[in-house]
């Protein structure tokens, strides 16, 4: 569907993002009786179905994915564990979108959300503006890789890349590689690269925490609660993984025994040939791989002034504390796949109450659908 470039198209709900959280929200909107392209639209700037999964590196096979929770209403079954997760989950999301006729608009960039007329939000997009009574923001973090800055970084003569651009281990054959970051991605990259590289080094800000024993429902709730507390305080959210530690499985045990996961403290500066510490230690490398995580992709919400002094958006349930029309799903404590599902359902439940209460102008009939 193409919106007129000048006159905003009125809908009840705009969903921004078609990853796990966005699709969950769209499913529950459909289930509540709202019609795609009439009552709500889902805008996704990715080129195809799959959310952030479509950009994952080829060596991350489906069998290596931890905790992929099925979308509501349709299980993911019969997936080949040796197939890249980008293909498996991309195909699953594509089937899901068509099964429930969610009519995702892509590729569409959302550039800004600001106050509109008549109590509506104005959503500015690459296919034209929308005037909406409620917004579900499901933009995740993949589009905002975090690159720390260190003295001398611009002088490094080798190559630097981030997890977001990780191509798989083959490109590191015969090279000396420094991996920065103590999360799951850093450990996974390091273990893969160590099999082909001339040498590897692992640098983290804090001593890595390896989690032994089962990680059940109680442990999961406790981890989510820690992330949730930051969001309630208006601080930028941390990932759930950041507070759970690294699972001590067979692969990690073997890597530790081989010395692959021997960690170095964070360096103080970057040199043309590698990195250096103030105590005189140096390491020469060909590649620095920044496995330093991501930040929430919410800059388009800046005109609404939702951020707290701490830098984050304070969220109550899924609702932005400063604007009840805005719901954030897949943000902070709902950033896991199961959390995203639950957040999508909770957001729609709250939005339905808002729509029943708000005597806004009825949504006009849908414009003709134009496929990209």
Could you name the key traits of this structure?
372 residues; alpha/beta; 22% helix; 20% strand
Layout of strands and helices, then pairs:
Layout: E1 9-16, H1 20-31, E2 40-43, H2 85-99, E3 110-115, E4 121-125, E5 130-137, E6 159-162, E7 176-180, H3 184-193, E8 199-204, E9 210-211, H4 217-232, E10 246-247, H5 250-257, E11 263-265, E12 269-271, E13 274-276, E14 282-284, E15 287-290, E16 315-316, E17 319-320, E18 323-328, H6 337-357
Parallel strand pairs: 1-2, 1-5, 5-18, 6-15, 7-8, 7-15, 8-11, 9-10
Antiparallel strand pairs: 3-4, 4-5, 12-13, 13-14, 16-17, 17-18
Helix pairs in contact: 1-6
Account of the protein in words:
With 372 residues, this protein is of the alpha/beta class. Helices cover 22% and strands 20% of the residues. It contains six helices and 18 strands. The chain has helices at 20-31, 85-99, 184-193, 217-232, 250-257, 337-357; strands spanning 9-16, 40-43, 110-115, 121-125, 130-137, 159-162, 176-180, 199-204, 210-211, 246-247, 263-265, 269-271, 274-276, 282-284, 287-290, 315-316, 319-320, 323-328. A hairpin with a 2-residue loop joins strand 17 (319-320) and strand 18. The longest helix is centred in the C-terminal third of the chain and has 21 residues, at 337-357.
